[in-house]
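A common beginner's mistake is to predict each chain separately and then try to dock the pieces by hand. The better habit, illustrated here, is to supply every component at once so that their relative placement is modeled jointly.
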Amino acid sequence: MNRFLIPFGLFVVVVGFLAVGLTLNPRELPSPLVGKAAPDFSLPQLHDPGKVISSNDLKGKVWLLNFWASWCGGCKDEHPVLIHLAQSGAVPIYGMDYKDQREEALTWLKEWGNPYPVVAVDESGRVGINYGVYGVPETYVIDKQGIIRYKQIGPLRRDILEKKILPLVKELQNQ
Amino acid sequence: MRWLWVLILLLPSLATAYEAQPLADNPQVEARLKTLAVELRCLVCQNQTLADSNAPLAEDLRREVREMIAKGMSDREIIDFLVQRYGDFVLYRPPWKASTTLLWLGPFLLLIAGATGLVFALRRRQKKLADVTLSEAEHNRVAQLLSEGDNRP
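With all components supplied together, the output reads:
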């Protein structure tokens, strides 16, 4: 009896570990930047390259920073969610056009709609590195003091928006 | 006909080979980048190092590291720069921390457990073998069989 019990016990433990492992997403890495100040940036605007958008201009309000690109497939998936959020007016979403071609980005926004009041252009991907971006789309929730409160890796979904982001935004806005 | 062969045989001599261009103008910078890049993980293709990967992000990060080296930053400072942004995951050698204790000690614990199990199993087997006693008749039979074996051509 004992002879089979030990291997069986080990088997159950291994299966348990593997079962938990299967539900984890290796692409979702915890960001060390959550709870820290959002890195500063000062970049040309997509629609008006002569103008600059700086992270300092956005202090004092809660805002979302959404890294996207016209070449990114996941960005199209989340786009309706962003449009919906922009229309609700709950929180402004600032776009960061990550390593993209200007013309293509403009066409993309024209075709699918523009949820952003302003889009910054991160052509070299440097600001992306400062924010620890490793796969677009990524979305950051930044509070009134300019602290990153949440990072969404991969496309935003309706349920994440409603369960996590909107309650957090409301809480931060009331602070 | 013969001149055609000569021509064909001479054809490869037209091909000229160049040494692979180093990625930066400064070979010292490149050497340091190489030693650093094998310690760092590409975050897009997670089982490749920064040195192996062709992902655009890896290229950008190599450029960034190259610039930091050129600025005279130490390896420690460069690694800290990346860890601040991407977390410990960017390191191929995770640091010793509370959350990584099991990672570092796990293999040794498994080794100890395995060795202990082996020692117990071997001891038990030895006891079983020692318990077998032979009668006089069995002893003679064994001796006979062994001598028969010796006589076999």
